[in-house]
Every structure is written in structure tokens, then in C-alpha cells.
Amino acid sequence: MIVSDATMRALHTALTGLNARRQAAEDNIANVETAGYTAKKVDFEDSLRTAIERGEPRAVDISVTRSLAPTRMNGNNVAIDEEMVGLTETALRHQLVVEGMNTKFRLLRTSIVGQ
């Protein structure tokens, strides 16, 4: 039995986007002292919103771009404090999406079992 509907597809896509953002932040932190490294930025929320409105939440463009923020003398523009805050925010959003999936499964179980 496949449990997949528009809500689950949207939540799954959101997790994919959040995972890409987490990976970018981890790369940025790992390269905070690398000369010439510019921070990666991940955007998918607008694309996900548009895809949901069209009824196809899997058709999402997860874009990874380089930050245009000013660089330090070594050409690096990673702001470690912003990256740490971003990682925390991404983790909280991830928990929220997982809780949304868990709620969906609880509703499904309740409808099957009847309790």
C-alpha cells in the first residue's frame, strides 16, 4: 500500500529542500577559513509554494547560489554566526515538517483502526 498524497509529497519535497540547505550550511561552516570561498545559499520555498498551487509539489526547483555578501581580505564571505543561526532554524523547520508527516500517519492509523 502506497501512502502518498499531495500533502505527503509536499512535506517530502520540503524535507529535500531543508536537507540541501543544511548541507550548504555545513559546507559553509567547514570552509569558514578557506580563502576565496563564498557561502552557498539554498532557496526552494517560493518554488514549492508555486508547485503546490499548481497541484504538483514534486516539481520544485531547489536552487543553490553563491552569496554576494562582501568578502573579507581573503575573499571569503562566510558569516559563522549567520550560518549557526541558519542551521538552528533549518533544524527547527525540519522537526516541524517531520511532525506534520507524523500527524498525517496518526490520522491514517486512526481512520484504519478506528481509535
UniProtKB/TrEMBL annotation:
GO cellular component entries: bacterial-type flagellum basal body, rod
Biological process, per Gene Ontology: bacterial-type flagellum-dependent cell motility
Keyword terms of this UniProt record: Bacterial flagellum, Cell projection, Cilium, Flagellum
Record keyword Transferase present: no
Main location: other
Compartmental location: Bacterial flagellum basal body
Top-level taxon of origin: Bacteria
Quaternary structure and partners: The basal body constitutes a major portion of the flagellar organelle and consists of a number of rings mounted on a central rod.
Family, similarity comment: Belongs to the flagella basal body rod proteins family.
Protein task: Structural component of flagellum, the bacterial motility apparatus. Part of the rod structure of flagellar basal body.
Name of the featured protein: Flagellar basal body rod protein FlgB
Organism whose genome encodes this protein: Actinomarinicola tropica
